[in-house]
Amino acid sequence: MTEQTSRTETPRRVVVAGGGPAAHRFADAMHTRGLDGWDVTVLTEEVHLPYDRVALSKALTDSSVDLTLGTASMWDHNALTLKSGERVVKIDAAAKTVQTAAGSSYPYDHLVVATGSDAARLPIPGAAYTHVYRTLEDVWAINKAIADLTAKLGRKVNAVTIGGGLLGLESAAGTEQLGANPIVINGSPWLMNTQLDEGAGQALGRLIEAKGFTVHGGVFPTEVLADDDGQVTGVLMADGRTIEADLVIVAIGVKPRDELFRAAEGEEQVFSLGQRGGVVIDDSCATEVEDIWAIGEVANFEGMCLGLVAPANTMAEIVADRLHGGAATFPGFDTATKLKLSGVDVASFGDAFARTEHSLEIVYADPARGVYQKIVTTDDAKTLLGGIFVGDATPYTSLRPILGRELSAEPGAYLTAAGGGDAPETELPDDAILCSCNNVSAGTIRDTVNGCGACDGNAPVQELGELKGCTRAGTSCGSCVPMLKKLLETELTKSGVEVSKALCEHIELSRQELFETIRVLELTSFEEVMAKCGTGAGCDICKPTIANILASQNSAYVLDAGRGTLQDTNDRALANMQKDGTYSVVPRIAGGEITPKKLGVIAAVAEKYNLYTKITGGQRIDMFGARLEELPEIWKELVDAGFESGQAYGKSLRTVKSCVGSTWCRFGVQDSVAMAIQLELRYRGLRSPHKLKMGVSGCARECAEARGKDVGVIATADGWNLYVGGNGGATPAHAQLLAKDLDDETLIKYIDRYFMYYIRTADRLQRTARWQEELDGGIKHVEDVVVNDTLGIAADLEAAMAKHVDTYQDEWADTLKDPERLRRFRSFVNAPDQKDDSITFVPDERGQMRPATAQEKAKVLIGSSIPVRSSNTNEV
Asked: Which pTM was predicted?
């Protein structure tokens, strides 16, 4: 059953029943280990590619979000097939086939059942009027229902969630973000009673009530009330009270979908089932029937089924390992939980309830602040058994990996909320699991950092993003990322790689520190900065960085006062140099809107100077092939016609892409073109650590691809949704939702704050996506600073942006006014009228010109440029 398949044998058929996260992880694990000799078929009843159920709350508040797991290209492998709309309804273990509801039959050599679980339902009258919280269709239906009810009722919807556990609170938080009144009914006296003790549960209750949630605890519902049209009106409680409700969501847990393992009436029960459901498996994840395995929530191990991502991933890896001849075993369930709910940190792990005999509980509670921290240890206070954190879960990151091991300090030192400072430094042993979601040990991280991993021929990995990609650590819930980053820096230091925040050898400060020093001391020149902050004459790292910072803080002409020598080639020429030494010219076309008259100007300029023209991805026109000395002439014609620099050469705002919006499009709900033009004219010339791109879409169809931009704006019927931190490039990232349904004024205010906070704190050449990812707290930290102003700097950020807007000047218009500035644009300093004859163009295949190749240039030189001398004289 566990022998590795040979390439020469007939492919072994593996059928996977189910298409959720566990099934995806198994398929990915098989793909990673090699599919030679295998034929893997995944049968899923849903129409979607496997998606991340852990992130369903994102789809609840944003129905356009893409939760697809991994990359769709994985399914292009010839030996890996995904069939959607195929629900397995029967296993014929004797014939080794499965049947689907569509009437298809699939033979198998190995069957992996990953059918997951269903949402539990309430056995009370009126249950048919409730929603559940389990699939994409479920959360989309809730989203639509709240929107429809809000419009119909003309007020905030009373959204009742029955269930005060993980799913229930996640659901309630989503309804609150959708603009409803969040109401939670919980049968237990305190919230999250499965993970939290009474003190922690009460602290959590106080915190979320302070955020506008209403909690009814310690009483059960008996009926969901509705009018004659089926519209919910309330929930009748066991104590006789009626809680007003317009919508009811039931999130009381899940039950394993184990119907495939239950015998039909009159048939023998072959599979063993747990007392509360689920098929019983052994530590190899095999069932009692040979060649049939079970993984994820349907699998019952030692009497438990658990709906957490970490054990499901581990089970999937184990079965893939076993099929490839390995001997991996399932170690048991990891029940650790960490979430951030409406800005409230909650974490629980290990023996959180101190059930171990003679265990000790070290507790810090501050009811007034809503903070509760508890560490559970052995009776000698040395070995960590578990913990609970509410309101401040900072110690969780360092404590979770050392569960079951000796603490490096006395337990009270880890109760950071008590005012004792940061948690003690912890040296993780190699076998400590750093990322429980993906079962990645600290030893695996060390090996990868030091060059013993599987990537790039065992080359060392020295970047956080690359480390995450190689090991999968930090790619699921993300709670281990701070510890992952710390371990990376520690290992680099041990191996002799200096982990320094210094900008370069001349400046010991980080870019963020340098930015603040220049701002506070009001430094205005490179010489002043080096005198205060650096040594030596500078280099090609610190020079353009200082020039960029000075430009960010002072909108003076970027090439004056000695700043020209600091810039790189493109900034010095105010144009992008191409591979043949010519330059491209990109005038600004704000929002992609341009009049026919201005189009004619561009056409005339391109014809006059014989320039190659191309529509860019940012909805403007690029003209290639301009010589350095031609740039002022070209720009004079463009500036006279009303154009200005598009700054395609700078680390600054490039474009604001837009769809046509509500002015013309029958689907548009807001004027996206007007907003795009307003944003582009506001942020034009804004210098930043990296280039910036924006997009504005007039409806949810997202034609402007706004979520692939650093800042994306998508119209809703109630305003604008603001997304931040997206980019394309080698490591693309989708922008994340920052705020919803904003009016124009609030939208611009938040973008002002976001851009300025990024400009002040990002590293040199760091895109917004990577900056946001590496912030402690990620998008939640950004929300705290930009939306909630937790740092108290919003007014300062807005003032800095206002200064930029008020002092903006077009660089090319300024250049043309000053003869001294024009002296820069000469191919030869000592021969201002001479042109560079090495620049040669030839016609391309599509009616324009292009740079000549080396061979083509050689032909021109041999034919006409080399003087021929007589063999008898020195005459030419």
From this structure: 0.59
